[in-house]
């Protein structure tokens, strides 16, 4: 929401500072940003609205201008609006134009990187071309050419996360359709240019809507079970995710849910919070003793927290036909929209906040080398991040309302969980074990982001750094001998790049989601939530200044 976005530190941020407060997005749109948005012809969103990307972009640009304007006279910021294509051991940066910049310190603030297709994706593409079909591999939806998806034709879509929502918008409103609410129910009016999307995934349901409310006094709570101290007390320098970490994560989220339920909604419980917490402290959520306590202390099943059921709502469910599947998925979406708008279900908000705390602890564990590469890639970067995104990083409620309207218009249908796709008789064929029959289509879209693998990145700068050993990202091999890809770039706990020979580059720093253990890469920081990205960036900035001070005293120019 607009009130959940800030680029400024505040008194909650635990860093050496200085802390320089500034307006969060909700304050900016009615203050300094009001004129900016008016001149851009953009309607300012309310504090509880989900702001469009254009509003966020205007805010980021304004913050940048303010920061640059506030610098002392002896600091100059120079931007080069071109690609950097090479970086040498001596920190010479070569730009695409051939210009060279000699630096004392370099920071690679890396976002999500374009990557080469996997061998499987190349094979899909070749087969599709051979049979005259359309195959769109994983990618950033706004960059994908969708022109081969024809009006009125069936398209099998694998993925129901944010990439799917973006795809859905581009293929409907983006092709001239429009919505109205004249009848009290959101109705989609097709342009006639839309394809028919048959959408599925492992779960078979779209991501949960973003929470549409706040609760006074809700702040991040330090983790109770999954703490650095708890991890330090476990056997082994390298921990086993499934055996040692996952039970603590499950317990952490369970604790957050029930603590909020018992303290904010005591009328829906029959025990005191202290009685219930005592049982949870000595058990785990899967233990019979704890399940019995839940049954006795929390009468309504709607107030129970079952992590497995949250993660896979259609697990073990079978459908007689596609109509029954569609009805079930529609009901799940409708219930989700109601629940995510109702503060009576504030335990959902508590779990959301707990997820952020868990992410922070896992980032530290990764940076300190407490997880094996296999656990990091398979469990944290894939399994855990997928669950986090499903629960906490879904679309605004309006997008799910549009999804339902498109379903009513016959333009979006559901395939069921565990969707598999194969080629048969010059067509793509989609199947789900939960529903009989199959789907056939000329087009197949992988509506998901590419899995991070910096060894497959197409960026020339990174390819050069990896090739000459200035950066490291090991080819990861699982215990069964299968390749896990290249994962992320390696950095030490101070965000300094680790070279291929294991040494640390003292003047090259790495930040962002393409870097193992980097904080603050999961989204914008929230006001008064002690954002880990702020804390990490403050520490890195301090180290940069120390290095530059040293180099300036030694006679260097300090760039």
From TrEMBL:
Highest classification ranks of the organism: Bacteria, Bacillati, Actinomycetota, Actinomycetes, Propionibacteriales
SUPFAM superfamilies noted in UniProt: FAD/NAD(P)-binding domain (SSF51905)
Domain of life: Bacteria
Protein name (record): FAD-dependent urate hydroxylase HpyO/Asp monooxygenase CreE-like FAD/NAD(P)-binding domain-containing protein
InterPro entries attached to this UniProt entry: FAD/NAD-bd_sf, HpyO/CreE_NAD-binding, L-asp_N-monooxygenase_NS-form
Residue ranges of every copy of the FAD-dependent urate hydroxylase HpyO/Asp monooxygenase CreE-like FAD/NAD(P)-binding domain listed in the record: 2-112
């Amino acid at each position: 929401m607009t009130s959940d976005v800030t680029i400024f530190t505040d008194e909650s941020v635990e860093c050496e500072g200085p802390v320089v407060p500034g307006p969060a997005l909700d304050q900016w749109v009615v203050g300094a940003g009001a004129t900016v948005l008016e001149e851009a012809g953009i309607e300012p969103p309310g504090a509880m609205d989900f702001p469009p990307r254009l509003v966020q972009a205007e805010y980021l640009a304004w913050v940048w201008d303010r920061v640059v304007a506030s610098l002392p006279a002896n600091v100059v910021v120079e931007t080069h609006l071109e690609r950097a294509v090479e970086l040498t051991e001596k920190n010479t940066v070569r730009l695409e134009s051939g210009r060279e910049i000699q630096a004392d310190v370099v920071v690679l603030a890396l976002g999500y990187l374009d990557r080469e297709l996997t061998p499987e994706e190349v094979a899909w593409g070749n087969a599709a071309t051979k049979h005259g079909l359309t195959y769109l591999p994983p990618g950033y939806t706004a960059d994908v050419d969708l022109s081969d998806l024809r009006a009125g034709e069936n398209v099998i879509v694998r993925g129901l996360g944010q990439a799917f929502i973006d795809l859905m918008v581009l293929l409907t409103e983006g092709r001239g359709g429009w919505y109205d609410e004249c009848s009290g129910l959101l109705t989609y009016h097709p342009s006639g240019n839309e394809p028919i999307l048959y959408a599925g995934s492992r779960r078979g349901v779209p991501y949960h809507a973003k929470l549409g409310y706040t609760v006074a006094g809700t702040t991040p709570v330090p983790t109770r079970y999954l703490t650095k101290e708890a991890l330090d007390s476990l056997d082994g320098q390298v921990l086993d995710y499934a055996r040692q970490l996952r039970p603590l994560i499950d317990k952490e989220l369970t604790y957050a849910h029930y603590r909020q339920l018992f303290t904010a909604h005591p009328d829906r419980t029959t025990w005191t919070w202290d009685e219930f917490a005592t049982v949870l402290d000595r058990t785990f959520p899967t233990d019979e003793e704890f399940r019995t306590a839940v049954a006795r202390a929390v009468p309504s099943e709607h107030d129970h927290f079952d992590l497995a059921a949250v993660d896979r709502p259609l697990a073990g469910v079978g459908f007689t036909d596609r109509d029954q599947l569609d009805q079930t998925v529609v009901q799940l979406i409708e219930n989700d929209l109601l629940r995510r708008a109702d503060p009576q279900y504030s335990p959902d908000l508590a779990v959301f906040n707990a997820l952020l705390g868990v992410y922070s602890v896992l980032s530290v564990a990764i940076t300190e080398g407490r997880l094996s590469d296999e656990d990091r890639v398979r469990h944290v970067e894939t399994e855990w991040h997928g669950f986090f995104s499903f629960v906490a990083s879904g679309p605004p409620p309006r997008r799910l309302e549009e999804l339902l309207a498109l379903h009513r218009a016959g333009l979006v249908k559901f395939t069921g969980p565990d969707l598999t796709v194969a080629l048969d008789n010059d067509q793509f064929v989609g199947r789900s074990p939960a529903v009989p029959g199959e789907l056939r289509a000329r087009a197949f879209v992988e509506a998901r982001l590419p899995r991070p693998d910096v060894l497959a990145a197409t960026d020339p700068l990174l390819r050069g750094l990896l090739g000459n050993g200035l950066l490291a990202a090991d080819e990861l091999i699982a215990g069964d001998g299968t390749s896990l890809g290249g994962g992320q770039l390696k950095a030490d706990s101070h965000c300094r790049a680790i070279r291929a020979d294991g040494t640390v580059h003292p003047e090259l720093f790495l930040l962002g989601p393409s870097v193992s253990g980097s904080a603050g890469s999961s989204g914008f920081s929230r006001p008064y939530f002690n954002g880990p990205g702020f804390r990490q960036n403050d520490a890195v900035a301090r180290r940069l200044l120390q290095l530059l001070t040293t180099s300036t005293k030694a006679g260097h120019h300090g760039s």
